[in-house]
Specification:
The complex is a heterodimer of chains A (about 200) and B (about 250).
Chain A (H helix, E strand, L loop, with lengths): L22 H17 L3 H23 L2 H18 L10 H19 L33 H6 L4 H13 L3 H8 L3 H20 L1
Helix pairs in contact in A: 1-2, 2-3, 2-4, 3-4, 6-8, 7-8
Chain B lengths: L17 H7 L4 H13 L1 H14 L15 H12 L18 H18 L12 H4 L9 E7 L6 E6 L4 E4 L9 E8 L6 E5 L6 E4 L2 H4 L7 E8 L12 E6 L1 E2 L1
Antiparallel strand pairs in B: 1-2, 1-8, 1-9, 2-3, 3-6, 4-5, 4-7, 7-8
Classes of the chains: A mainly alpha (about 200), B alpha+beta (about 250).
C-alpha cells in the first residue's frame, strides 16, 4: 500500500566500478557512502557528509532565501531533514548530490514562500550562475548524468531560457517572474510554456 | 513523457506544460493545487512530473557553492533533541533569528492544540493526548502540525493533528469510502510525489504511528490528501482512485 522502497540503508553503497576510478568517481562513492551510512544514523558519516556538501547546499539556500541568516537557518533544517530521511535514499535511483540538492531547494522555497513578502529584484550579492560546465574544483559534486538539458536550453530564445533559469535558481513563481520583467503574467506563462515545450522536444529526441 | 492535456486550460497561454511547470516550481495558488491533484489522480502525469524533475536536476551542477557557516554543532544538537523523547529540559538553540522563541511558539502551539481538542474532543480516537504534555513546551522544538481536510461532498472537514515528536497522526471520524473500498491518506511534500501514510479506519477516527521515513515528509505546507483505493490500499504505491479530501499542514 505504500510506495516506500525496501530499506535503502541496507543496500550496499555503489562502489566505483573497476576501471572508472577517476577522482570524480572516488569522490562520488565517498559521498554515497556518507549518505547511506547517515541513513544508518552514523554521526561520523553525517559529519563527513556535512563537510562534503554544506558549501553546495548553502549556495542553494542562500540564493533562494536571499539573506544569510535565513539561509543559515534553512540549511540547519535541510541537514536535519537529511538526517531523518537518509534511510530512504536509494543510490540506484538518484545521484547523491541531486538527492541532497533537491531537499535544499525545496526547503528554501518553502521558507521563501512562507515569507509572503516578495523581493522585486534578484539579490545583488549572490554569486552569478554561469551558463558553463562546472568548475573542475567542483568535480566532487559533479553529477555523472548527461548535461542534455543544458544543451537543449541553448536552443531556446534568450528570454525563454532566462525565465526558466530564474525560476529554477531563484525558486520563484510565474507571478514574480512577470513582476521582475515587468510584463503581463499571461505573456510570461506563454514564454515559459513555449520554452518548456521546446525543451521537451529536444530532450525526447 | 506525456503531458496529459487538461481540458480546462486555455490554449492562448501556450501549450499545456503543467507537469514541467509543477516540477520547475512556477505554479502557485489554485493552479498549483490543481496540478498537485493531477499528480494524485493521473499516474501518467505523476510520471511526467518525476521525469521533468530528473531533467531539471541537471542544473544543480551549475549552482555555485558558497562556504557555509559551521552550523554542524547546532545541527547535531537538534538531532540530539530529535532522539530525546523523554521530554527533559534541553538547551535553547542559539543563533536562530527566524524562530526567535521556540518556547513562545510552542506555548502558542500548545494553546491552539488544546483549543482543537476542546472543540472536537469526541472524535479523536484512542490515546487521548495528555493535557500536561503540550502544557510543558520547554522541550518541544517540533511544533504540532494540523490540517483541515475538506471533503468533496457535504461532509464536515476532517481534522488532522500530527504530533511531530511522537510521529503520531490522528484524524477525526469520517466515512469517505464505501464498504468495498478503502480510504488512503497521502502526504504530498514540496517535491510533488505522494507518499502513503496509511489507511483510514472504516468507522471512527484513525490513529497512525508513522515510520521515520514518512515522518520526514510531514512539514508545514505539505498537502495531505485522501484517495479512494481498492480494499487494502493502492497496489501501485501511488494513488489510483479519486481524491476525496485534501488540505495543507500548518503549525498550530
Amino acid at each position: 500500500m505504500t510506495d516506500f522502497p525496501p530499506d535503502a540503508a541496507a543496500a550496499p553503497a555503489s562502489a566505483p566500478k573497476p576501471g572508472s576510478e577517476s577522482p570524480e568517481a572516488i569522490a562520488r562513492a565517498r559521498l554515497v557512502e556518507a549518505l547511506v551510512r547517515t541513513g544508518e544514523e552514523d554521526r561520523v558519516a553525517f559529519r563527513d557528509l556535512y563537510s562534503l556538501t554544506s558549501a553546495k547546499l548553502f549556495g542553494i539556500c542562500y540564493r533562494i532565501c536571499g539573506e544569510r541568516q535565513a539561509a543559515e537557518d534553512v540549511l540547519h533544517d535541510v541537514y536535519l531533514t537529511i538526517w531523518k530521511r537518509a534511510g530512504a535514499y536509494e543510490p540506484s535511483r538518484a545521484s547523491p548530490i541531486t538527492w541532497l540538492a533537491t531537499i535544499a531547494r525545496n526547503r528554501a522555497i518553502d521558507w521563501q514562500r512562507a515569507q509572503k513578502v516578495r523581493r522585486s529584484t534578484p539579490i545583488e550579492d549572490a554569486p552569478q550562475i554561469l551558463d558553463t560546465a562546472p568548475l573542475a574544483s567542483e568535480a566532487l559534486l559533479h553529477d555523472e548524468q548527461s548535461h542534455l538539458l543544458q544543451e537543449c536550453l541553448e536552443l531556446l530564445e534568450q528570454r525563454q531560457r532566462s525565465a526558466i533559469h530564474t525560476a529554477f535558481f531563484d525558486g520563484v513563481t510565474y507571478a514574480e517572474l512577470a513582476e521582475r520583467q515587468n510584463i503581463p503574467l499571461g505573456t510570461m506563462k506563454s514564454w515559459v510554456r513555449r520554452g518548456l515545450a521546446r525543451l521537451r522536444e529536444c530532450l525526447e529526441r | 513523457m506525456t503531458d496529459v492535456r487538461h481540458p480546462d486550460l486555455p490554449g492562448d497561454d501556450g501549450p499545456d506544460m503543467t507537469a514541467a511547470e509543477l516540477a520547475l516550481g512556477v505554479l502557485e495558488g489554485d493552479e498549483r493545487a490543481q496540478a498537485v491533484r493531477r499528480v494524485l489522480s493521473e499516474p501518467g502525469f505523476a510520471r511526467a512530473v518525476e521525469q521533468w524533475r530528473g531533467y531539471l536536476s541537471q542544473l544543480f551542477d551549475l549552482w555555485p557553492a558558497i562556504t557555509a557557516p559551521d552550523i554542524l554543532p547546532r545541527i547535531e544538537r537538534s538531532i540530539d533533541r530529535l532522539h530525546d523523547t523523554t521530554g527533559g529540559v534541553v538547551p535553547h538553540p542559539r543563533g536562530s533569528r527566524l524562530w526567535p522563541s521556540l518556547a513562545v511558539l510552542s506555548s502558542i502551539a500548545a494553546a491552539g492544540l488544546l483549543v482543537i481538542l476542546l472543540v472536537r474532543p469526541l472524535s479523536l480516537p484512542t490515546v487521548p493526548p495528555s493535557p500536561t504534555a503540550p502544557a510543558t513546551p520547554v522541550a518541544a522544538p517540533l511544533p504540532t502540525l494540523v490540517a483541515s481536510l475538506e471533503p468533496e461532498g457535504k461532509q464536515a472537514p476532517m481534522t488532522v493533528v500530527y504530533d511531530q515528536r511522537s510521529g503520531t497522526l490522528r484524524l477525526t471520524e469520517t466515512t469517505l469510502a464505501r464498504a468495498d473500498r478503502s480510504a488512503e491518506l497521502w502526504v504530498i511534500p514540496s517535491d510533488g510525489t505522494p507518499r502513503s501514510l496509511g489507511l483510514l479506519q472504516d468507522t471512527g477516527g484513525t490513529t497512525l504511528a508513522l515510520n521515520p521515513t514518512v515522518r520526514a515528509y510531514l512539514a508545514a505546507g505539505a498537502t495531505l490528501a485522501v484517495s479512494i483505493e481498492p480494499v487494502g490500499g493502492s497496489k501501485t504505491g501511488a494513488p489510483t482512485g479519486p481524491v476525496v479530501a485534501k488540505g495543507a499542514l500548518s503549525p498550530v
